[in-house]
Write a structure and sequence with these properties.
The protein is α+β, with helices and mostly antiparallel strands and 177 residues long. It folds into 2 domains: 93 residues, DNA Primase, Chain A (Alpha-Beta Complex); 63 residues, Orthogonal Bundle (Helix Hairpins), CATH 1.10.287. The protein has a 4-stranded antiparallel sheet. Strands 1-6 form a two-stranded antiparallel ribbon.
Amino acid sequence: MTSLRFRKELLPLPRHFYEHELGRLSRPSRGYVRCACPLQRGRNKTAFSINLNTGHFHCFSCQADGDMVDFYMAYHGCDFNTAKVALGACEESTINAAAARAHRAERERQRIAGREARERSFRLDLAAEIHADQQIINEISKELQADPDNDSLWRGLELAWRSREMSEREYMEACNV
């Protein structure tokens, strides 16, 4: 199913629109042009005022008031949909609820897959860190067998064990998420 959505930014420039509809306009004064009311077919010579900056019009005689779309509807005697198409202020959009639902479901699936990939990467990094800590512990243990009185090796071993325990705790928390 297709529909035509109104887009105000697609309306023509007010001066071009009114010149096309009414012919040549007088010189503007402070952005306004005055003329005979085209909706009454020219009864009062200066009752109709047009703001060329915004496209708003007002007739002081018949009290007609509105924007360019309102003017087009009144001048041509048509409805809003006809006016927006004639003024080129509509955009065709396809409304397909099933496609929209499928698109939202695919975006959600991608978001979940991305989160799972980040969690998997985090767990792999932690496992690599635990493995590296274990290698350091093994190396320090070998060094301590040769020199059991080396205090700096003992401090290094203690730090390596703490690091490994912290990494294991983080790893277990990440796996239980």
